[in-house]
Amino acid sequence: MKLNLTVKNINKYVAGEFVQKYHYSKVFPRLTSHYLGFFQNKSELIGVVTLGFGTQPSATINKLMPGLKPKDYWEIGKMCLIDSEEKNRGSQVLSEVIKWIKINEPEKLFLYTLADGIVSKLGIQYQASNFYYGGYFYTDVYLSKEGEKIHPRSSKELCKENAKFCGKEKIFWLTKEFCKLKGISRVRGKMFRYIMPLSKKARKMLDTSSTVKWTNNDYPKEKDLEWKIQTDDGYKLLTEMPQMNLSVVNINKKNVESYQRKDNEFFG
Length: 268
Description:
The protein is an alpha+beta fold. The chain is built from 8 helices and 10 strands. Strands 1, 2, 3, 4, 5, 6, 7, 8, 9 and 10 form a 10-stranded mixed sheet that branches.
């Protein structure tokens, strides 16, 4: 079914309310430049997509395309849609995102995103939209005893506490002893890369300038998901996704609350 979609820039609180209601993760990327709202028949908000960067904008694109800079791409931070039986809704929204970028920021070469394999996400919507797949890399996250998923870059306060615990001035990764004390697990899984070239020049660059091989006919499937958990003897392969409770936001509380409107703030 073809949707009658209108794309508008919305404020962070409208986006926050929508994402925290419908998305599996309530936490937003720190570096967000655009909150795009997708309205069906001009009035019903049925989707939100954020454009910005991950934690290392320059390093991310330069590792994939040496010489490029953050000005050359956007990264999808959040893509959230109202639950629907319409199988192609995600593809239509992504098509509108691409159109919006080409019209409003034609200098952009690429639209980049990641599918979080740690929570069993394969990037099915990107696959259905013929994004190019660029393989995977492993990443680590922490899981609190309550099941909260904590990105290492969100563990600053925990690292401070851990440093005091082990008598050091500063640490960057939680120690095994501290994790045991706090009931925290360190889990490793895959992140799947996807990219959409926004011009013929960009499409050619995928073949001639990229450090990874891009394909749109060999996408990851469920059998490609993998999880490992840290033990005293290294990492142990798990047979299934570790239990998570993505509604818990203790460590990530500040991030989540920053997207919740206060009574005296304009909600437009």
